[in-house]
Amino acid sequence: MAGFADLNVPQGPDKKGLQSLLEAAARLGYSAVALNHVIDFKEKKQEIAKPVSPSELFPSLPIVQGTSKQLKVLTRLTLVVSDPSHCNLLRSTSSNIRLYDIIAVFPKTEKLFHIACTTLDVDLVCINVTEKLPFYFRRPPVNMAIDRGIYFELLYTPAIKDSTMRRYTISNAISLMQICKGKNIVISSAAERPLELRGPYDVANLGLLFGLSESEAKAAVSTNCRATILHGETRKSACGVVYTVKKLRKVEEEETLPACKKAKTQA
């Protein structure tokens, strides 16, 4: 069986706090976590930096509870998109984007949600859980995302912090479940402090409140997370092939141009 994973641990500047979060995750039985770097284009124009290697951040990683294995730490990039032009970056073959293990998109409008589900090369689509959704989920884009192997992410920490956000979280989650029928759901924490983390079985129980069945809720913190990671690995290797092909074509063109000029001169 796939181990448990939390695919959303915010990557803040406080290394000590981040180390405490990782230790808490390993103690609770998670075998993998993803450090999430968020870029919101609405705030200001931001460059996408290379992901920081976990080995550079932490001298040693904690051992997962009940095993002899170290916690696996992945890198994740989340782009908050509020305008269609923001999606162009994801369509490019940016070398820095390709270095992240997981790419997620947080669409703010129905149009952008449709684009994310149907055309963008991402691994996760984030669902807003802190306010009422400004649109209704529709079956065609959701089904297209499922067919493409893209997963939908729900966060549970806002539901723990605030009663109003708890209502929005449950309401928005149930709206999504009515369309996706519990398929391709990932539940993550976005915990900023160790106290906000919950064990995987507790998170699975929260999944029941979101409208998931028992098996679907368990998959949302285990097998679906593993599938998301594998989707990211496939995307990275596919991007590498595209990038290599483009470089080869460029080299071939550069070699062909002098030959063509020489032929014209001789004629």
In short:
Helices cover 48% and strands 17% of the residues.
Structural write-up:
It holds the Pfam family RNase_P_p30. By secondary structure, this protein is of the alpha/beta class. Helix content is 48%, strand content 17%. It has eleven helices and seven strands. Strands 1-2-3-4-5-6-7 form a seven-stranded parallel β-sheet. Helix 6 (139-147) links the parallel strand 5 (124-126) and strand 6 (151-155). Helix 5 packs parallel to helix 6 (139-147). The chain is globular.
Write the layout of secondary structure elements.
Blueprint: E1 4-10, H1 15-28, E2 30-40, H2 54-57, E3 72-81, H3 88-91, H4 95-98, E4 102-107, H5 110-118, E5 124-126, H6 139-147, E6 151-155, H7 157-161, H8 163-180, E7 185-188, H9 200-209, H10 214-219, H11 223-266
Parallel strand pairs: 1-2, 2-3, 3-4, 4-5, 5-6, 6-7
Helix pairs in contact: 5-6
